[in-house]
Structures are given as C-alpha cells and as structure tokens.
Amino acid sequence: MVLDANWAVKWLTLCAQAMAEHRVELIELDRAIGDSDHGENMDRGFQAVLAKLGESTPETPGAALKMTAMTLMSKVGGAAGPLYGTAFLRAATALGDSAQIDPSAWADALAAARDGIVARGKAESGDKTMVDAWTPAVDAARAAADGGSTDVLGVLVAAAEAAEAGAVATDPMIARKGRASYLGERSAGHRDPGAVSSALILRAAVGAAA
Ligand code: ADP
Ligand code: MG
Ligand code: MG
Q1: CB distance 34 to ligand 1 below 6 Å
Q2: What ligand has the least distance to the C-alpha of 176?
Q3: Ligand 3 centroid to 35 CA: how many Å?
Q4: Is pTM, for the whole model, over 0.90?
C-alpha cells in the first residue's frame, strides 16, 4: 500500500462520507456543550471539498490537502473552520510535493497539523478540544514510525486508534477553550465534538488505505 494522490482523494472522499453519516451525532454533541452546529459545519465543509475534487484531480497528496485547507477555511466558519484549515495547510506544507507519504512523513504531517491547531487556538492537552485527539495520534504515529514500521497502514491505524481513545478521554474534562468553556464544570460528562470529528478524519485515512 502506498499513500499517494489517489489515496488522498479517497481519504477526503471518505471524510465527506463520515461527516455526512455522523452529522447528527456531531450536532448532538455540540448541542450539549456548544451551539449545535459542528455537524452542520463539518458536513458542509467536506461536501465542498468533494465538489472541488469533482472539478480537478490533485497531483500530489500535498496538493489535495492544500485544496482541502482552503475549502474548509472558506466554508466551515466558527472555531473549527480556521483550526482545520490551518491543520490541513500545515500538513500540506510538511508533505511538500512528494508523490508518496511514508510512515515517518505521515507522523511529521500529523505533528505539523497538531502544531498548527495549537498555534491557532492556544489549547493545551486536557483543555477538552480537538487537540486531545490530535496529540495522542501524533505520539502514536511517531512511536509506530520510529519503531521501524515500514507498514504505513499500521501507522495510520495507530494514529486513528489513539485519536478515538483521545476523544473518549475528553468526557470527564472541563473545557478551557472554545464555547464549551463558557459552561465551566458543567462541560464535564460530555464528549468534545471537535475531538470526535478529528478521530473520524483519522479513521477515514485508514479506510482509504485498507
Ligand atoms: P463553534 O464553537 O464556533 O460553533 P464548532 O462547533 O464547529 O465551532 O467547533 C467546535 C470545536 O472546535 C470544539 O469541539 C473544539 O474541539 C474545537 N475548538 C474550539 N476552540 C478551540 C481552541 N481554542 N483550540 C482547539 N480546538 C478548539
Ligand atoms: Mg459549534
Ligand atoms: Mg458555531
């Protein structure tokens, strides 16, 4: 399995499918601790990415991610639009114009995405945001790649599983960033919607390679 431009197109297509399928779930999560629009925002954003993919085919994974960044920034709005826009843009820059992504490059791209989210939103681990999905994913991908894994699917799976566990781990956290922070301690006992959408994105990366 190689992660090339075809894989990237499939990944983004599966992201759009996942956001449509989980739209209501993300809306419900955001209803509990936010303003109920996260599912709508993410579905709209990735449907626009899908439309762009129908207009032209990116030549490299980096080009696909850069197009995604621009589209999400212009279509998603709210907190998530600029955060995901920055994440995809930084990942695209990390990948450059390489035709293929190897395990270490995937770990580097995830780290760049996470660093972009942190630069933009200033959240730390434990603040009950999407960072709590991304940071464990970065660490798991790095560990898998440094462990000498030449199997890129294994690195994708490690990142997705860590993001999913990270999203679940936001349940007891008290939000310190974003709208959910307005609730203070009442934000505890709910899963962060952005952490869940982040895990869906990283799970779609596995689906595209499987
Ligand atoms: P809004 O809160 O503007 O309605 P969304 O509902 O689309 O935007 O996105 C909310 C998600 O954005 C949260 O669940 C959280 O994961 C993420 N988020 C909000 N603020 C920050 C931040 N400062 N840093 C990182 N992530 C954040
Ligand atoms: Mg919202
Ligand atoms: Mg909103």
Answers
A1: yes
A2: 1
A3: 6
A4: yes
Give 149's DSSP letter.
-
Mutation probe of ligand 1 site: the residue of 118, 177, 181, 192 with most atoms within 8 A of C-beta: 177
Say what the ipTM of the complex is.
Answer: 0.99
pLDDT digits (tens, 9 = 90+) for 10-26: 999 999 999 999 999 99
Question: Per-residue pLDDT for 156 more than 80?
Answer: yes
37 lines ligand 1 (CB under 6 A): yes
**Percentage of residues of the chain with pLDDT beyond 70:** 100
CB of 177 within 6 A of ligand 1: the answer is yes
For the domain bounded by 5-209, which CATH number is listed?
Answer: 1.25.40.340
